[in-house]
Specification:
Organism: Equus asinus
Strand content: 25-35%
Region (Disordered): 640-664
Low-confidence stretches: 1-20, 649-664
Shape: flat
Mean pLDDT: 77
Structural class: alpha+beta
Helix content: 10-25%
Main location: membrane
Radius of gyration: 39 Å
Largest sheet: 5 strands, mixed
Distance between the termini: 65 Å
InterPro entries: IL-17_rcpt-like (IPR039465), IL-17_rcpt_C/E_N (IPR027841), SEFIR_dom (IPR013568)
Strand order of the largest sheet: 2-5-6-9-3
Membrane topology: Single-pass type I membrane protein
């Protein structure tokens, strides 16, 4: 019987995989036969040339049917591609004799492999199946249509064909509307999957910082400041041995690159080392410059020290002998734009000094020259220029030769010296200037004290409002109350008006500063109770604090409970705190008993008493107080009615995005 041959060809693209499939290890293709047959896979791909149909000289092995199966080919633990396994069922036809070819094709590329299969004479039954051969495997793209042909070579019969539509898997996209960025996952409602956000750094392993198990289609908000070029998303089904899909959608996003530079930090590593800390790699160079006192530009060192390519999160060395507070590091991006500047020695060596930087240039035959780095350039010391360095040129050279200057850098071409300038200030004017400054400072202090006294009297007593942001309607209600109290007048502090400080300082630090200022000025902290606030209080009282990250980045109420509760537990609350809640939104019995140690007022029903407590003993007469209470009630009523009105649609919770989840 002639030796049969099989040829497989496949044309498929690549696509992320999110399936639970059989796992194949390694890069090599393979072929196996059913019992009784022998087969061999030829090395390398071959050219697919079907040819025309010819007559068979006798019985030959021919393909009778085709089957396919999706598997995974994995190169590393989590690096896998989708593959198509092809099974060819074989039979001997009495009227045909040929070699057999399989052709497997799909747009846009093609691959052909050649298999050799032999059938023992004992298995030859004309017209009946003699077994099958299985080929592993062709890499494929999800969602594409694959066409498979099987024919003999030479071709003795019309080829078999099989068309298969590979499954389309859940897809992940990113949408942006202004500063609002969302991850959109289109999956079936019953599918459960894991989602992880991580920084794909060049150095070191993957570092996930947010993970959650989810079900069904999801729209997940992202914090705009968390978007950096190396932020990647990984998705996988919650099934054993499932493949993980990863995409990094912000690689070319200009906002992501701006955020990366804002997040980058320079750190001094004594004695002369430094490191650039950043979540992603940066294409930038570092150079040293000299920052003179004042707000002028940082001047590049002359002669310029060589720029150094930056490797983030790795210690680097300065080519210096000594550090100096006026020496700064500049990070220059790949498009020659200054992105970051830090004077790293300012913390350890003190503020900027009024030192003169001398540049020594060395020529042949020990010929040396000196110039001083000034805003106008490098001024020769023994010149007739009208600059400070030129006027003091001889004295600076004497200081240099007498060892009073600090050598910062040295090589065969020159050196850098920092010479102090303090002694050249005219001493006889020091006391006069000091007396003038003290007199001016005293006058300014008296002016500030008088202005502050007048301002305090005009604006009234201080009040710090603390509340839980249950929803947007409740925030508007609190904002209406705060605005109305400012007209009483009271000096009101509320986190709604301090978003920038909250973002910069954090809720806890912001609350500490506001509480200290309010108490020192004799004001009151107002605890506004709502269902959300009551739940947070009970959570603290029962579990000694909420889980980290359970509340939003601006939730001053949740952050403040760690300081508020000790005041109540230790009896320091009376005289510093009052409570309030809104009629119809909370029942009086819902306020925890611990907080009833101070007056708790329902609003607007007890507005006069509430305003009287806030304004203290120096408040207005009762008639005037009643008028102000009516004004506040009128300002509150529209926002309160909006909160009491049944909502038209179900509101979202406190957020399901990364800011509400756990960061690992």
């Amino acid at each position: 019987m002639p030796m049969p041959w099989f040829l497989l060809s496949l044309a498929l693209g690549r696509s992320p995989v999110v399936l639970s499939l059989e796992r194949l290890e390694g890069l090599q293709d393979a072929a196996r036969c059913s019992p009784g047959l022998s087969c061999h896979l030829w090395d390398g791909d071959v050219v697919c040339l079907p040819g025309s149909i010819v007559s068979a000289p006798g019985p030959v092995l021919v393909p009778t049917s085709l089957q396919t199966e999706l598997v995974r080919r994995c190169y590393q633990e989590t690096d896998c591609d989708l593959c198509v396994r092809v099974a060819v069922h074989l039979a001997v036809h009495a009227s045909l004799q040929a070699q057999v070819v399989l052709s497997f094709q799909a747009y846009p590329t093609a691959r052909c492999v050649l298999l050799e299969v032999q059938v023992p004479a004992a298995l030859v039954q004309p017209g009946q199946s003699v077994g099958s051969v299985v080929f592993d495997c062709f890499e494929a793209a999800l969602g594409t249509e694959v066409q498979i042909w099987s024919y003999t070579q030479p071709r003795y019969q019309k080829e078999l064909n099989l068309t298969r539509q590979l499954p389309a898997l859940p897809w992940l996209s990113v949408t942006a509307d202004g500063d609002n960025v969302h991850l959109v996952l289109d999956v079936s409602e019953e599918q459960s999957f894991g989602l992880s956000l991580y920084w794909n750094q060049v150095q070191g392993p993957v570092k996930p910082w947010w993970h959650r198990n989810l079900t069904g289609p999801q729209t997940i908000p992202l914090n705009q400041t968390d978007i950096v070029p190396c932020l990647c998303v990984q998705v996988w089904p919650l099934e054993p041995d499932s493949v993980r899909t990863s995409i990094c959608p912000f690689t070319e996003d200009p906002r992501a690159h701006r955020n990366l530079w804002r997040a980058a930090r320079l750190q001094l590593l004594p004695p002369r080392g430094w490191r650039l800390d950043a979540p992603c790699s940066l294409h930038a160079q570092a150079t040293l410059c000299w920052q003179a006192p004042g707000r002028g530009p940082c001047q590049p060192l002359v002669p310029p020290l060589p720029r150094e390519n930056v490797t983030v999160n790795m210690a680097l060395e300065f080519p210096l002998l000594k550090g100096h507070p006026n020496l700064c590091v500049q990070q220059v991006s790949s498009w020659e734009k200054l992105q970051l500047q830090e004077c790293l020695w300012a913390d350890s060596l003190g503020p900027l000094k009024d030192d003169m930087l001398l540049v020594e240039a060395r020529g042949p035959q020990d010929n040396r020259s000196f110039c001083a780095l000034e805003p106008s350039g490098c001024t020769p010391l023994l010149s007739r220029a009208s600059t400070r360095a030129a006027r003091l040129g001889e004295q600076l050279l004497q200081d240099l030769h007498s060892g009073q200057c600090l050598q910062l850098w040295d090589d065969d071409l020159g050196a850098l010296w920092a010479c102090p300038m303090d002694k050249y200030i005219h001493q006889r004017w020091v006391l006069v200037w000091l007396a003038c400054l003290l007199f001016a400072a005293a006058l300014f202090l008296l002016f500030l004290l008088k202005k502050d006294h007048v301002k305090t009297a005009a604006r009234g007593r201080a009040a710090l409002l603390l509340y839980s942001a249950d929803d947007a309607g409740f925030e508007r209600l609190v904002g209406a109350l705060a605005s109305a109290l400012c007209q009483v007048p009271l000096r009101v502090a509320v986190d709604l008006w301090s978003r920038r400080e909250l973002s910069a300082q954090g809720p806890l630090a912001w609350f500490h500063a506001q509480r200290r200022r309010t108490v020192q000025e004799g004001g009151l902290v107002v605890l506004i109770f709502s269902p959300g606030a009551v739940a947070l209080c009970r959570e603290w009282l029962q579990d000694a604090g909420p889980a980290p990250g359970a509340h939003g980045p601006h939730d001053a109420f949740a952050a403040s409970l760690s300081c508020v509760l000790p005041d109540f537990l230790q009896g320091r609350a009376p005289g510093r705190y009052v409570g309030a809640y809104f009629d119809g939104l909370l029942h009086a019995d819902a306020v925890p008993a611990l907080f009833r140690a101070v007056p708790v007022f329902p609003l607007p029903s007890q507005l006069p008493a509430f305003l009287g407590s806030l304004q203290g003993p120096r408040g207005p007469r009762p008639g005037r107080l009643g008028e102000r209470a009516e004004q506040v009630a009128r300002a509150l009523q529209p926002a309160l009615d909006s909160c009491l009105r049944p909502p038209g649609t179900a509101g979202m919770g406190r957020g399901m995005g990364p800011e509400a989840g756990d960061r690992t």
